[in-house]
Amino acid sequence: MAESEPGFDQVLAQLRGVVEKLEGGNLTLEQSLAAFEEGVRLSRKGAQILDAAESRVEVLLRDEQGERVAPFDSGAGAAEPNRGDR
Predict the structure, then answer these.
(1) 73 contact partners, CB below 8 Å, separation of at least 6
(2) What is the per-residue pLDDT for 5?
């Protein structure tokens, strides 16, 4: 990502601003359409940033042979297995 491009937090803040403008109900039809277009653009940019982050995480979760390794148990809510050494 280039330094001049906004990060995810900035995109999200801008998107929230667009939503607030649209919810305010004080825009003309043309202004509403322009704000909606901006919101769609920001939404797509945010999705691209999240996709890139997901790709980076996937790379980090692979071992030397390219196999996916899980850093934690996928059953996060499951009870801890009973260990006989306690």
Answers:
(1) none
(2) 85
* 3-state secondary structure at position 16: helix
Contact in structure between 36 and 44 (CB atoms under 8 Å): no
65: which 2 tokens?
């042979």
- Nearest-5° angle of CA 26, CA 40, CA 4? 105
The whole-number mean pLDDT for each consecutive block of 10 residues of the chain, a chain of 86 residues, reads 80 97 95 97 97 91 78 56 48
Phi-psi region of 66 (alpha: psi -120 to 50; beta: other; left: phi over 0): left
User: How far is the C-alpha of 46 from the C-alpha of 67, rounded, in Å?
Assistant: 29
Find out whether 1 and 55 touch, Cβ atoms under 8 Å.
no
Helix (H) / strand (E) containing 33:
helix 29-60
| Dihedral of alpha carbons 42, 47, 53, 55, sign | negative
Give the global pTM: 0.69
